[in-house]
Design goal:
The protein is α+β, with helices and mostly antiparallel strands and 395 residues long. 32% of the residues lie in helices and 30% in strands.
Length: 395
Amino acid sequence: MKTVFTKIEGAVTAPRGFRAAAIAAGIKRSGKLDMAMIVSDVPATAAGTFTTNEVKAAPVKVSMQHIKRGKACAIVVNSGNANACTGTIGLIHAEAMAAAVARRIGCRETNVLVCSTGRIGVLMPIVKIEAGIKKLLGSLSPNGGPSAAKGIMTTDTFPKQIAIRVKAGRKVIRIGAIAKGAGMIEPNMATMLCFITTDAAIPRAALQKALRTAVNQSFNRVTVDGDTSTNDTVICLANGLAGEFPLAPFQEALNYVCVELAKMMVLDGEGVSKFVTVNITGAASDADAEIAARSVANSTLVKCCWCGGDPNWGRIMDALGYSKAKVEEDSVDIAFNGVPAVRNGIAAHTPHARLRKIVVAPAFSVDIDLHLGRGRCTIYTCDLTEKYVTLNKGE
């Protein structure tokens, strides 16, 4: 069965039966948009994945409990305050956000999912939040998806959104999504939020499995700085208004949406000037391939030389060697955009100027073959610039 994707407008409100909005509630000193809401006109099947950090923000704890019910009517989000490391009062505030939405739209509190992003360790301005929720509910629109994408931004320089029309045979559905994330990005997951909507009817267990598969192939394959945050959340709502849809093409479409958003996060990484794809092949196993790829992608030395347009493959060899993956020095091949830099562990005869021309470009790939097996992994990453340091000296 052939699956056809067509990009469309609307982000999370592209699928039928979803409304969204964003407002400025006064959480950010800048006065920019800092709250967003997504509502399904009918209770939706809900699936989610959350941060692996042992220090979890209050909204993560609340949403992890609520999503166990398997149904959700709304997602409420604030930016500018993470509500993390805020103790019991933080949990009370997160629960209050859910309750404020639930009583106004007439659903259970457990049918509302809560997310926050921003500075850690600061108490939520709950009075502003509750006033913002009331305002959001009055602003909901079937065209509000793009606005919601802006309302969840923190250090992002552009809103991250996508929507596609998916056709498989005679069946047609839509999937829409928004995300945020520019720093503290090494999902498993990291300071990133992603909200996905679809009008397909997908059973809860199948939706959770599909989401986890998509996340593992996308958000868990990007890294900006190697830091894993306290607030990571990916939520998918499927309200079923377009009817049943085959699982295989749905998985294919969901993978596509998540990969596209993950790439946007790397492109918008704090201070990023280079988008780099690290491809590992020939590893002893897929697990080894991922270990090796992450070691290269997160190496400060490697990322700095990329910033300088330096095809310093010695630093890549070094990162492979300490990665804990199985590596045999004499078997390693390294190439930039397919142009060989290393063959059998030693320098290839490619002129330095040719390699440098590749690495000074804003996007390139690092292709590494370990020649030890069939394991493979691709990680999307970036360089490390002076601007990253400037952005993270203080908030």
